[in-house]
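Q: What would this chain look like folded?
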Amino acid sequence: MPSRTFPPVRIIKTYTVTPRPNPEVPRQLHLSAWDVGMLSTLYIQRGLLFTYPPDLSAQQIIERLRSSLEEALFHFYILSGRLRVVSCEGGGVTCHVEVECEGDGAEFVHAVADEIGVTDVVTMGGQDLPKFLKEFFPLDLAHAVNFDGCTKPLLTVQFTELIGGIFIGCTFNHVIGDGTSFWHFFDAWAEITRCKAARNEVILSQPPVHDRWFIGGYGEPPIKLPYSSPAEFVVRPSTLLLREKMFHFSSESLAKLKERANQEYRKGIISTFQALSALMWRSITRARCCPPDQKTSCQLIIQNRARLQPPLSPNYFGNSICLISTSTTARELLDNNLGWSSWLAHQIVSNHTDSAIRDQTHKYMKDPFVYNGNMFDKHSILMVGSPWFNMYGCDFGWGKPLAARCSIGNKFDGKISAYPGWEGGGSVDLEVCLLPEYMSALERDEEFLAVVSPPIDLEVLLGTSNKDV
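A: My prediction, written as structure tokens:
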């Protein structure tokens, strides 16, 4: 059955939101090694779906969100700045990028989707994610790389009116922060909105820490990149025809998966997420029909904050992530059991210690470079996001979100984004991006299907979205 075609989302008005100056944030902010490497990846684009707030008009919602965004930008002042590239004079072969925090402002977009309703966004019954989701985010930033933050806002928010609901989409420059920082900002913005609606003083429960972490031994920042101009490191992503689908895993199903992995490898210390990562690695490798001797990897984006010694603040606002990876051949991966591949995932996580982080950072500082999406191995998978992000705790004063969704940015074959399950309790949602033929094979994979759970019933979502859950 062909998917329904919807008319384009209409942009009503775009506002510039400028905060008052924050004297505690420096006007020039140097980027860390974790930040600089993100210059040629795409902006983070995530958003939340809500039922329509009762007793509020669209204009009242907009006024609340704009006013609270202005206050949020005061606290997260770096998001109102712009990137600036500085090239060495006299024919030098290095350049560096910094953030100018001069309060240029963020953008707030008001849009209307005339024929799209809540039920169209929350796809059920095994449907692919709808193509119109990309229109819930500013389209001029859909394919923007982070370096474009030299001329474009570092943060743009789009408020889209739907039939029976609203969607708040946030486009966030990845040089400024990682997923933890993204949801830290989103949650703080919601907290401020609630405070201002109740006419309470705004005191953030988790104020951001803007000081960047630098490893010693390389002089004072900035970090100099071995390029004479941005043209040498800015790589625009190629567009692939992908299928994108959300799969739900209940806490009960995941508990059985974890138990199975630990029984098979007789270790007892494999985590739920390590077992789930191994399941996806095995299932997708099988779906791809890789040759037996083909090398394949399971790659994870992992947090550094709590692993450093001394640890960084959980409110560290910036990038603090590393890519870790384990590899084997397709034959070894599939001939061995789930416990074996789960143990491979467990080892790279447990080995990611303070020493490993510092070694990886030293290696980068000796030969700095900029990542781009074309570096990904097409025979591997990449697990990003986290089921521990507080997505469903982002309460703007009108109840729990119905769903979390993202746009088209940073999508490629083999990318898997983790979300907390709506019902909590350790449940997980995975957004899987694959080439069409691989997705069709995954949908028939017996090991995978034995673990996937039915999605949450839409009536349950709609019946509890405006209540405390």
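The longest helix spans residues 179-197.
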